[in-house]
Every structure is written in C-alpha cells, then in structure tokens.
C-alpha cells in the first residue's frame, strides 16, 4: 500500500513538474529608453508592444526622457540597476548619453540604438532610417519644385542629435549643386512644433528676401514654421517636413490637405526593432547596422498612403483587441488549468484514500476472519482433545459415587467433580456444535415430541439455581403442543436462553418461559426483569464471541450465536426485545413442523441431554455447624457454588467458614461478623471482587481484614489491578489446596504479629502509621483520658468511636488479641499500680480514682491480674 501511495505522490509531483517546466522558458526584460515623447514615438512604442505578442517570454519597460539628456542617462542607469536583458535606446544627442549606454554595453547587456546614434562604437546593433537620404530626398524635391532657383530656410532638429546632423548634410548635398538656390537661414528648433514656430518668427523678423521653401527636419516643426509664416502674411511660402506619419494630425494628412508640400516617410517599424532584439537575445544571426527604407510623400501619393496607413492602423487595433482577448482567454485557461489540476489531484487523492481504506478494510476483515477461524479451530481441537479425558473422568466418578461406603465428605467432593465434568462436557459439545454450524455441517435429527411436556422438565432443571437467587420461575405453555423438530436443538435454545436469564437476573427477579402457537409456528420466549441490554449492543448480541460491555460474568460468547443458528437451521429465527433497566425477552420462532430433506428422522423420543445440575444445597450462609472460637473466621465469596463447597471441604478443619455468593452479600456479612480473613472471587454478579475488596479496605471496621483474591484472571495487569484494590494476596485458578492453605495461614500469622505489636500499651514505632494504628491510638486515648470515670465502659467507647459494641469488640480483638473490656480493665489496674507506688492515697481512694465502683471488686481484679493483693509496701 505504501508503494501505491508513493506512485500517487510521484504522479502528482510529475504534474507539478510539468507545470513548472512550462514556466521554465527564459523570461526577458527589455528596457526601452526614449529621448522624447510625441506621436512618432507613441507609434513606435505601440509597435514594440505588438512585437512582443509573438514572444510570450518578453516584458518591456519604457522610460521617456522628455528631451532631457541627463534624465535619459539616469533612466538608463536605473534600468541597469533593476536588471534588464537588453537595452533599446534612442539617444537624445550624439555625445551626452554615450557614457550611460557604454556602461550597459560594458556590462554585457546588448544595446540596440534606434533612430538616433551616439559617437561611441559600443552598441550591438543600429536600426533606423537613413537620415542623410531623407535630407537628400527633400533637397532634391525642393530643387525640382524651384526649378533650380529660389530661397530656402532650414528649420533643423536638436543640434547635437544625429538625425539633425545627417539630414542637414544630405539636404545640403542635394541643393549645393544648384548655385541659384540659396539657403538664406538655418535655425535649430529641437524637433518641437512650438520651437519651429518661434524660430521661424525670428527668421521672418530678420530676413528680408522672399522665402520660397522652408525645409523643416520634421513635420511638426514644419507646421509650426508655417503658422509663423501665415501669421506674418506670407502665403506663398511652401513647407516640407519629414516623418509622414499616417496618424490623425500626422504628416500624411497635412500633405494631402496641402499644408505641407511634401514629407518623407521616416519609418518607425517597432516590429522590426523587436525582431532584432529577439534575434540578439536568442542568439540568432542579425545585422549590426539596419537601415529602413523611407519614401517621399507628395500630394500625389499622400491620399493612397494615408488610406494604407489608416487600414494598417485598423488592423493594428484589431490585432491589439484580439491580443487582449487572447490574453483574457489565456488567463481563464490558466485558471481552468489550475482548477483542473487541483481537481485531478483531489480526485486522485480521494481515489487513493478510498482504495487504501477499502484494502485496509478487506485486509482487516480477512485477518479477523483468519483470527476467528484460528480461534475456532483451536477451540475445536482442544474440545476434541478434552472429550476423551472428560469421559474417562465422568464415567469412573459416576461409578465410584455408587459405592455405599463413601463418607459424606467424599460424596460431596465427588458430586462437585461430577457436576463440573458435566459443565465441561456441555461446553465442549457447544464448541463442537458451533464449529459444525460454521462449516455448514450441522445436521438436523427430526423427532415428534410434545413441547409443553419438555418445557416443564427444562424449567425444573433451573429451579435450584433460581431458588438460590430467590428468582421466581414461571411457565406458560399449552400442555399439548406437538412439534416435529430437532428436539436436542430446541432444548439447547431453551437451555441457553434460560441459563443466560438466570445469570443476569438479580436476586428476587422473575423469569418467564413461555410458548405460544402462531399459525404454523411456535414462539418460545424467555423473558426476565433483569437489567436488560443497552440499545447500542442489541444489534450485536447474536454475533459470535460477542460479550456485552456490562457483563462481568465471563462465558464464551457463543451461547446466543448457537441459539440463532439452531433456530435458523430449522427454518426459524430469534429476536430480542429489551428496554434497558426493565429486562429482556428473547423469542425463538420455529416452525411446528420443521422441513428438511437432509434431516434424519427418528421415530424414537429424544433422550434428554444431561444438563448441568446446580448443587442442591444453597451455598450462602454459615456452613460450619459447630463454630469453634479458636479457629480463625474465614469468609468465602464466590458465585460458583461448587467452588464454595470445595473450599469449605478443604478448609473446614482449620477455619470457621461463612459463605457469600456475591460482593454485596459478602460486604454485609463482613461488616456484621468482621471475619479474620476473606477469600474472594473476582468475576461475580451484583458486586465484583475488586469493588468488594476496595470497600472492605475503605471501611475502618473491616480495613484490617486480609483479603485474598481467587480468580481465573491470571494476567500481570489483572494482578496489579487486584493489588491496587488493596488485596493482600492474589491466587489464580486452578489452584492447589496446599497453596491456598499456606497462603491463608501466612496471612493469619502476619496478623498475629500485628496483634503483638498492637497489644503493647502504645503501638510499636516499627508499625507504620495506618488506619489501624490510628484506630488503636484513638481507642487507647479515650481510655486514658476518661479512666477515672466509673461510668466509662465499652458501650460508651464504641459510641464515641461510632461503632456497634460487637464491631468494636471484633476490630479490637482482631488487632490486639484482647477484648476492649479487658484492655479497659488492664489500663485501670496499671494506673492503680502506679498510684500505689507513687502516691500516699489509700487503696479505696485509688480504686475509685481509676474507675472501680467498689474497692473490694478492685482488690479482686488486682489480685487476678498481678497475682497478689494491692499492698503498697509490697509493691515498692
Ligand atoms: C520624434 C522625432 C521625429 C524625427 C526624429 C528624429 O521624436 O523628432 O519627428 O524624425 O525624432 O530623431
């Protein structure tokens, strides 16, 4: 089973492992450092984000420096601190950001420059349009438009930024071939519309010549310059820019609408930037310098390009919405996957637990079955073994019992043997029957008989035991109740039910045996008014080997199982009705005519089984007829009459014996008689031996009495339990008469030693303080303090000690060997003796002082005790 669990755990582990592997793919963080914020860069950023859609393992982090070099350098360094795998950077100017970018490069972080460049070679790759080409194209456009003659103004981007430098160079190259074309002014406007307007304002303020064309290095600055120009009333001037963004307000729209004469597509292509980044990160081949294609936009193609751009924008929006949908589905899917996984694990665990529990239950049941079978087999073997020796005991005993020369004692002993052999034979037969039932080999022997007649006989057999417990037996049956059934089994059913009832019904109870005909069946009921059976135990009562919790009466636990089997084998059933505290009624319902093709039928009447006969004598009461005061008084407590009888037989010569059948009866007798020693069984009805022993040891009247527990319970812990109850000795059955005698004798001898100790005027210091020493001390103290009182007598002392006179007598006698009256007299005489020696008082005075009512009686007692008359001089 352990292996199965390990497999299950491995499986679960594997599922988790797989999940973990799924997530194992390397995650990249790319830092994107933008020099400024505008629609061109917004578009680029969007495209970068879309570029990540194809790569699950990439996370972008953006920073925008707002045209501030120092800020951009700081932002790059923050990226480095926080950890990035690749840096995409558009440096604001050529020189100023280089050191931060170099730092990243030196740390081994790949660097992609896009759109703008630095003056350093420390970059992994560049991607962007060819700015020289852009300037060159726009120069040529203007040259063409001016047809080789005219005045131009250039509004340039940020002075130190690479595109501004390169675009100017390209532009100059294009126009320089036409001497009639003059660049009459050039201003830097930092790529900003507002600045474009301002710089144009300045130019217009200072320039007097007519301006035919303004070349702005981007569309935004071009539009700003146009505004300034219009402000100044120059409507003829034409403007060109670069970027040609397809977005609203972008270059394409402005070219289409004529605000700009031309523009140049300065591509963003964030998708390609992303692709390049992934190639570098995933070690795929890439080109170091990647120039993107641009194109001239004029009024002629602006419309088409705009339409194209709008279409592209729509597609991008659609893609983006699709992507967010996919994202949310993916999140849902991941949740579902997790739930599914958890669900699968729970199901697997449940299956595991169920399988485990089922297999454990099966194994347990198998083991139980095996244990029961082994037990039964063992009992059966033993029973078979016992049968022969039992027969060999029973028969010779019966034979010897017929001998007329036997003494009464011998007859008694043989009767005990005979009765107990009968019990053993019945028990052995019961076990063998039970085995037969278990193996399905029990057969029926059908006979015709009159149930009424047999029931009378069966009940009679229990008369003696019922009488012993003062139980009233009643029989209700029709005199003529013919049956065809297995008589032995019907008898066994009745016998078992009756003997159970006798066992459990307390003294003075009532048992009724009845049989009533009901259609084709007969109902045999044994009802008692005993303690009944607890409701929770009722369903188990017919199970083999079942012992009720409350039962301390032993037994094999197969009696009721046999009743059930014997009823069922004859086509009947057995039921129980019981109200706890009010009694129990067992009913066997049997067919009046048992049908069984396999059954053997016997025409002859069944020979009655010889049931156990209870001993005729009632066991309780004093069995020693002539009480001998010299012999110690022994109280024997056992619910088994034979044990009582046997013990009485073997101990009678040495003890005065009183018998009791259960703990309660024995307790009453012990308090009344205060015996010298008690011999007590443990498992008994009403009050068991343990409880009895505990109570004996708790009561000051009886606490000194040695208790010997005599029991079949031989385990060490059972012994310990016995000693914990205060038992002085523990003898297990079977026992030998010799052992029993010597154990009792040694306890009696011990008590004698104690008597010697207690008989001294004050108990010896060697005696540990106990209830007994305290008791004797108290007794002596009462005497010593009230000695001079002539009224002090044993009656008053027993009153003060809250005991009856007889109880005080027995207790003091048991502890000291002397009667309380003798001790009192002795104390008075000893005090008188002291007075004689130490005072001048005369004899009469002393006699009264020590509590004698007359001097003459004092003198008589004194002489008896000391052997001389109370003479003062003599005693000095
Ligand atoms: C955007 C921008 C564009 C220009 C480019 C040059 O920030 O100003 O308008 O073409 O940068 O780097």
UniProtKB/TrEMBL annotation:
<dbReference type="InterPro" id="IPR005467">
    <property type="entry name" value="His_kinase_dom"/>
</dbReference>
<dbReference type="Pfam" id="PF00512">
    <property type="entry name" value="HisKA"/>
</dbReference>
<feature type="domain" description="Response regulatory">
    <location>
        <begin position="633"/>
        <end position="748"/>
    </location>
</feature>
<dbReference type="Pfam" id="PF02518">
    <property type="entry name" value="HATPase_c"/>
</dbReference>
<feature type="domain" description="HTH araC/xylS-type">
    <location>
        <begin position="777"/>
        <end position="876"/>
    </location>
</feature>
<keyword id="KW-0597">Phosphoprotein</keyword>
<dbReference type="Pfam" id="PF00072">
    <property type="entry name" value="Response_reg"/>
</dbReference>
<dbReference type="InterPro" id="IPR028082">
    <property type="entry name" value="Peripla_BP_I"/>
</dbReference>
<dbReference type="InterPro" id="IPR001789">
    <property type="entry name" value="Sig_transdc_resp-reg_receiver"/>
</dbReference>
<keyword id="KW-0812">Transmembrane</keyword>
<feature type="domain" description="Histidine kinase">
    <location>
        <begin position="381"/>
        <end position="594"/>
    </location>
</feature>
<dbReference type="InterPro" id="IPR036097">
    <property type="entry name" value="HisK_dim/P_sf"/>
</dbReference>
<dbReference type="InterPro" id="IPR009057">
    <property type="entry name" value="Homeodomain-like_sf"/>
</dbReference>
<dbReference type="GO" id="GO:0043565">
    <property type="term" value="F:sequence-specific DNA binding"/>
</dbReference>
<dbReference type="GO" id="GO:0000155">
    <property type="term" value="F:phosphorelay sensor kinase activity"/>
</dbReference>
<dbReference type="Pfam" id="PF13407">
    <property type="entry name" value="Peripla_BP_4"/>
</dbReference>
<dbReference type="InterPro" id="IPR011006">
    <property type="entry name" value="CheY-like_superfamily"/>
</dbReference>
<keyword id="KW-0067">ATP-binding</keyword>
<dbReference type="InterPro" id="IPR004358">
    <property type="entry name" value="Sig_transdc_His_kin-like_C"/>
</dbReference>
<keyword id="KW-0472">Membrane</keyword>
<keyword id="KW-0804">Transcription</keyword>
<keyword id="KW-0238">DNA-binding</keyword>
<dbReference type="InterPro" id="IPR036890">
    <property type="entry name" value="HATPase_C_sf"/>
</dbReference>
<keyword id="KW-0902">Two-component regulatory system</keyword>
<keyword id="KW-0805">Transcription regulation</keyword>
<protein>
    <recommendedName>
        <fullName>histidine kinase</fullName>
        <ecNumber>2.7.13.3</ecNumber>
    </recommendedName>
</protein>
<keyword id="KW-0418">Kinase</keyword>
<dbReference type="InterPro" id="IPR003594">
    <property type="entry name" value="HATPase_dom"/>
</dbReference>
<dbReference type="InterPro" id="IPR018060">
    <property type="entry name" value="HTH_AraC"/>
</dbReference>
<dbReference type="Pfam" id="PF12833">
    <property type="entry name" value="HTH_18"/>
</dbReference>
<dbReference type="GO" id="GO:0003700">
    <property type="term" value="F:DNA-binding transcription factor activity"/>
</dbReference>
<keyword id="KW-0547">Nucleotide-binding</keyword>
<dbReference type="InterPro" id="IPR003661">
    <property type="entry name" value="HisK_dim/P_dom"/>
</dbReference>
<dbReference type="InterPro" id="IPR018062">
    <property type="entry name" value="HTH_AraC-typ_CS"/>
</dbReference>
<feature type="modified residue" description="4-aspartylphosphate">
    <location>
        <position position="681"/>
    </location>
</feature>
<keyword id="KW-0808">Transferase</keyword>
<dbReference type="GO" id="GO:0005524">
    <property type="term" value="F:ATP binding"/>
</dbReference>
<keyword id="KW-1133">Transmembrane helix</keyword>
<feature type="transmembrane region" description="Helical">
    <location>
        <begin position="338"/>
        <end position="358"/>
    </location>
</feature>
<dbReference type="InterPro" id="IPR025997">
    <property type="entry name" value="SBP_2_dom"/>
</dbReference>
């Amino acid at each position: 089973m352990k292996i199965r669990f390990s497999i299950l755990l491995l499986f679960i582990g594997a599922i988790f492992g797989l999940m973990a592997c799924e997530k194992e793919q390397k995650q990249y963080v790319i830092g994107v450092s933008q020099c400024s914020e505008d629609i061109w860069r917004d578009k680029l950023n969007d495209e970068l984000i879309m570029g990540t859609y194809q790569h699950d393992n990439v996370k972008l982090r953006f920073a925008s420096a707002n045209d501030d070099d120092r800020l951009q350098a700081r932002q790059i360094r923050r990226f480095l601190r926080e950890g990035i795998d690749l840096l995409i950077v558009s440096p604001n100017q050529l020189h100023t950001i280089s050191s931060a970018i170099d730092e990243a490069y030196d740390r081994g972080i790949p660097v992609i420059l896009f759109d703008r460049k630095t003056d350093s070679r420390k970059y992994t790759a560049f991607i962007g349009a060819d700015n020289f080409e852009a300037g060159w194209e726009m120069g040529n456009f203007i040259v063409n438009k001016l047809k080789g003659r005219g005045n131009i103004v250039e509004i340039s981007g940020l002075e130190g930024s690479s595109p501004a430098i390169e675009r100017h160079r390209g532009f100059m190259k294009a126009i320089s071939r036409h001497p009639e074309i003059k660049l009459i002014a050039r201003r830097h406007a930092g790529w900003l519309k507002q600045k474009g307007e301002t710089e144009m304002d300045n130019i217009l303020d200072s320039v007097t010549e007519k301006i035919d064309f303004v070349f702005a290095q981007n569309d935004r600055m071009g539009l700003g310059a146009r505004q300034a120009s219009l402000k100044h009333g120059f409507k003829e001037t034409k403007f060109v820019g670069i970027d040609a963004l397809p977005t609203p307000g972008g270059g394409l729209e402005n070219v289409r609408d004529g605000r700009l004469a031309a523009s140049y597509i300065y591509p963003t292509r964030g998708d390609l930037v992303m692709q390049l980044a992934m190639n570098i990160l995933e070690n795929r081949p890439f080109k170091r310098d990647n120039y993107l294609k641009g194109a001239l936009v004029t009024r002629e193609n602006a419309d088409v390009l705009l339409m194209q751009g709008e279409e592209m924008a729509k597609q991008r929006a659609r893609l983006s919405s699709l992507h967010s949908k996919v994202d949310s589905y993916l999140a849902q899917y991941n949740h579902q996957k997790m739930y599914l996984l958890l669900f699968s694990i729970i199901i697997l665990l449940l299956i595991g637990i169920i399988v485990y529990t089922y297999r454990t239950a099966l194994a347990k049941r198998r083991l139980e079955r095996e244990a029961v079978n082994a037990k039964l087999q063992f009992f059966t073997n033993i029973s078979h073994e016992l049968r022969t020796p039992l027969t060999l005991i029973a028969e010779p005993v019966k034979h010897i019992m017929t001998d007329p020369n036997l003494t009464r004692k011998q007859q008694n002993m043989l009767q005990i043997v005979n009765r107990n052999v009968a019990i053993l034979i019945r028990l052995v037969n019961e076990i063998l029957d039970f085995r037969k039932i278990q193996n399905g080999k029990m057969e029926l022997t059908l006979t015709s008989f009159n149930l009424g007649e047999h029931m009378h006989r069966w009940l009679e057999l229990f008369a003696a035991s019922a009488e012993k417990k003062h139980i009233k037996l009643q029989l209700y049956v029709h005199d003529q109740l013919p049956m065809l059934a297995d008589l032995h089994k019907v008898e066994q059913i009745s016998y078992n039910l009756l003997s159970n009832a006798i066992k459990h019904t307390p003294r003075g109870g009532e048992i009724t045996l009845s049989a009533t005909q009901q259609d084709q069946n007969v109902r045999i009921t044994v009802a008692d008014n005993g303690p009944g059976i607890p409701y929770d135990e009722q369903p188990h009562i017919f199970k083999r080997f079942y012992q009720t919790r409350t039962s301390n009466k032993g037994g094999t636990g197969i009696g009721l199982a046999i009743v059930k089997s014997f009823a069922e084998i004859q086509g009947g059933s057995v039921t129980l009705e019981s109200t706890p505290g009010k009694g129990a009624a067992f009913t066997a319902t049997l067919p009046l005519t048992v049908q069984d093709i396999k059954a053997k039928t016997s025409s002859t009447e069944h020979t009655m089984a010889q049931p156990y006969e209870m001993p005729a004598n009632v066991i309780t009461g004093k069995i020693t007829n002539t009480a001998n005061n010299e012999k110690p008084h022994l109280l024997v407590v056992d619910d088994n009459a034979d044990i009582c009888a046997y013990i009485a037989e073997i101990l009678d010569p040495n003890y005065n014996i009183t018998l009791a059948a259960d703990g309660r009866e024995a307790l009453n007798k012990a308090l009344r008689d205060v015996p010298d020693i008690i011999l007590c069984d443990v498992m008994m009805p009403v009050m068991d031996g343990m409880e009895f022993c505990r109570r004996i040891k708790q009561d000051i009247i009886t606490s000194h009495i040695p208790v010997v527990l005599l029991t079949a319970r031989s385990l060490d812990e059972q012994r310990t339990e016995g000693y914990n109850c205060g038992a002085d000795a523990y003898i297990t059955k079977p026992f030998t008469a010799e052992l029993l005698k010597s154990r009792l004798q040694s306890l009696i001898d011990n008590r004698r030693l104690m008597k010697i100790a207690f008989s001294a005027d004050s108990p010896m210091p060697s005696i540990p303080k106990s209830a007994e020493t305290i008791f004797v001390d108290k007794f002596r103290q009462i005497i010593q303090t009230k000695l001079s009182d002539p009224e002090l007598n044993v009656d008053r002392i027993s009153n003060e000690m809250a005991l009856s006179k007889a109880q005080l007598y027995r207790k003091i006698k048991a502890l000291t060997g002397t009667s309380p009256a003798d001790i009192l007299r002795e104390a008075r005489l000893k005090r008188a003796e002291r007075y004689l020696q130490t005072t001048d008082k005369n004899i009469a005075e002393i006699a009264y002082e020590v509590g004698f009512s007359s001097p003459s009686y004092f003198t008589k007692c004194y002489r008896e005790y000391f052997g001389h008359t109370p003479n003062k001089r003599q005693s000095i």
